[in-house]
Amino acid sequence: MIDLVIFIIVVLVILLLATFFYRKNLFKRLDGLEKQKANLKDVMVGDELEATGKIKLNGESFDKFNEYKEQYEKITNSDLTSIRSDMSDAEDFLNSYKLLSASVTIGDLGDAIEVVDGKLNDIHDGLSELQEVDSLHRKAIEDVDNTIREINQQLLSQNYSFGPSSDKLEDKLSTIKGVYEEFVAETENGDQNKAEELLGKINNLINEMNELMKIIPDTYVSLSKEFPRQLDEIERGHRTMIQTDYNFVEDDIDDTINTLKESCQEGLKSLAELDIPETKKTCTYIEETIDSMYAIMEKEIVAKRKVKKNISLVYDFIFHAKNQNRILSDELEGLSKNYNLEHDEIENTAELADKISKIETIYNNDYDAINGNKAVYSVIQKHQQDAKQELSSIEKQQKDINDSVAELSKEERVARDSLQKFDLQLLNIRRRIDNLNLPGLTEDFLERYDYVYNEVSNLSASINQVKISMDEINQKLANISDTMDHLLSDTENIVDSAMLSERLMQFANRYKNANEDLNAACAQAKDYFDNRYQYEKSLATMAAAIEKVNPGAYKQMETEYYNEKKTTK
């Protein structure tokens, strides 16, 4: 029972402590809200309303001001009164320990104060903007007035530099002044939105005016002085060139000059109307055409110097190419009596002669044009460049043809030496085979021997004709060389196999009576040797049999044979 009482007392103490601290916290929150309320900008906004009310406002700006005023009055007469009442209620709840009611009221107070603070800030910002716009517009009145005075002063003092554009520029300035007067009136009247719109229009007009006044002077100078001066210079230069024997492919310079003079007048007209895009287009056309005429005249002046410098060089080049072609043609004519020229050397040389003749014809016509004062030097310069390039190609082709036939006699000597070598090789093959006293040779070997022999004979007949074809002879040489290599290799195999096979048969005699397998191998090898003339098979049969009877004996005999062969060579 005592324990229960103690438990209840402890619980009560805890509850009392919790209530105390919770109530204390609520008082603290309420104090904080009172400070927030004290920091609200209601007094400041009231002062701003009074100050802004002294500004003359009209139209949408006036409507905004009234809206801000109504919002402020609602806040002071309703929202703030309600907040003060709720604060009083919250304090009463706390004093009477109605903590739950106090907590709800304090929470609502926080939200209400935050809302009021946001509304007051919006009103403050709006009023500040109205005051700032009014201040900016009043300052702009002075700034724009100064700018207009400066533009007007510039138009008066530099009137000559704007040429025919002066009247239209004056009109534009009058337009700016008219809009400025509207702007001043609307500013004084307090219609900030209308004034802001007019101020933007004024700034655009002033920017456009400044841009025109920056562009027009240089453009006017170009159209009225610079372009006409250049055209006069071109006209004099062109006249002088014609008088000093210059000619042009299509001489329309005088007509173009007249056209450009008219374009200058058209450009001045569009400039007077302030049609800057059209004026720029005209100026660009005039400038580019003038540049092209300067370039045409400069091209002929430069071309004349180069033509004069190269006239003798091109002549020498043509003369040299003609002489070389004549020498080459004579040489080919002589060679054609002894050789078949099978790569169109004579025809190609004739074509080169025709090309040289055409180049010479053009050169002669150009030379006559120069002497007759009818030369278009840029055209002649192009002819000279083409001639030098083509003559260089012709001389290279002449050299290639000459080099190709220059080797004919050397090729013939090489062919005759090769023929002699083939005769000796055939003779040597026959001698070596005969010296072995072999029982015979295979049909395949004899056919190859006869083929090579006949080819060598045909080569001899071809090379001993009065007029020979080196292409044909070189082809036969290549065929014989390949076949001869195979025939020499086959001959070596026959000689080596036959001699080694005979040595192995003699060596095998010492074992014949004691080894039946060896006797059979000897018989088989002898059949290959005497009857079939297959000396390699005979050697292979004997080598295999002797290796079984006396391992290593064949390799030793083979080594001794090739060593003897090296010594006897």
Automatic annotation (TrEMBL):
Pfam families: EzrA
Source superkingdom: Bacteria
Membrane-side (Extracellular) residue stretches: 1-3
GO biological process assignments: division septum assembly; septin ring assembly
Signal peptide: none
Family membership: Belongs to the EzrA family.
Function as written in the Swiss-Prot or TrEMBL entry: Negative regulator of FtsZ ring formation; modulates the frequency and position of FtsZ ring formation. Inhibits FtsZ ring formation at polar sites. Interacts either with FtsZ or with one of its binding partners to promote depolymerization.
Protein name according to UniProt: Septation ring formation regulator EzrA
Organism: Apilactobacillus kunkeei
Encoding gene (name): ezrA
